[in-house]
Amino acid sequence: MHINYLNRRISKFKHLNSSFILKLIAFKDFWIFNCCEGCQYRIIDKGLKINNMSKIIITNLHINNISGLLGLLSSLNLIGRIKALHIYGPVGLKYYLDLGKKYSHTNFNYIVYIHILKTGLVINNYKYRMYSLLINNQYQFIIIQLEEYGTFLLNCAKKNYLTPGPLYGKLKKGLIFILPDGYILNGYKFTSLNFLGNQFSFVSNPYCSRKIVENSLFSSIIIYQ
Predict the structure, then answer these.
(1) What is the pLDDT of residue 107?
(2) How many Å apart are CA 42 and CA 157, to the nearest integer?
(3) Is the distance from CB of 68 to CB of 40 less than 8 angstroms?
(4) Which of 3, 68, 73, 79 is a plausible cystine mate for 39, CB 3.0–4.6 Å?
(5) What is d(CA 3, CA 17) in angstroms, rounded to the nearest whole number?
(6) Do 141 and 132 form a contact (C-beta atoms < 8 A)?
(7) Which residue segments constitute the domains of the chain, with CATH numbers given?
(8) What does the alpha-carbon distance between residue 219 and residue 212 come to, in Å, rounded to a whole number?
(9) Beta partners for 144?
């Protein structure tokens, strides 16, 4: 996963009310954490298409985190977006959007799903999972990139006189088979090493605590808001 900050003032990982892009590997879609003012122009400046944005996560209702949200949603409407958009945020976000649409007399031609953040699994993708933890009225997010199977060694399969078919897929998953003559086919011998995945933590609480440290022990990247 790749991270790009949207706040031009940010030069370090620790900053108050930070907005950034999370670009997921092997996907053209990307996620946004918080929407600073003018974020749509900065997304384009990063070489990304705003229509490829699939999820927006709002950590709190501070003005620096939501000042660009309505403008971004309106820009998506102007470019003719039709696919749904998922927004995750605290209680009160829905009322802010409803009042903003009412005041600006704006409606969206695409579906906007609003999810209220709570402790537990928030996003469940076949390659990524995001957990939200509420600690002292502040959210901590943990994004886990799931383990991926290694590349199937086709030459090794041919040397064992295995014909292409469903067996290849099962061996790639590491399954073990015993043939009628007692010969053992170990799936791990037919694939390269598995990619163990990655873990990323985003802490919206500027004060460190034991729970935050314990939850971030296995994270390769930690960002404090």
Answers:
(1) 85
(2) 49
(3) yes
(4) 68
(5) 16
(6) yes
(7) 2-148+195-224 (3.60.15.10), 154-189 (no CATH)
(8) 11
(9) 129, 199
Rounded to an integer, the average pLDDT of 199-220 is 60
Confidence (pTM): 0.71
Any idea which residue has 């030459």 for tokens?
Answer: 155
3-state secondary structure of 30: strand
Other CB atoms within 10 Å distance of the CB of residue 85: 19
Pick from 94-98, 115-119, 141-145, 205-209: least confident: 205-209
State the DSSP H helix or E strand holding residue 210, giving kind and residue range, or none if neither.
helix 210-215
**Strand, coil or helix: 223:** strand
Ramachandran class of 224: left when φ > 0, alpha when ψ lies in -120 to 50, beta otherwise = beta
Pairing of strands 184-186, 198-203: unpaired
pLDDT at 157 > cutoff 60: yes
DSSP string, the chain: -EEEE--TT--SSB-SS--EEEEPTT-S-EEEES--TTHHHHHHHTT--GGGEEEEE-----HHHHTTHHHHHHHHHHTT--S-EEEEE-TTHHHHHHHHHHHHT---SS-EEEEE--SEEEEE-SSEEEEEEEETTEEEEEEEEPPBPPPB-HHHHHHTTPPSSHHHHHHHTT-EEE-TTS-EEEGGGGB-PPB--EEEEEE--SS--HHHHHHTTT-SEEEE-
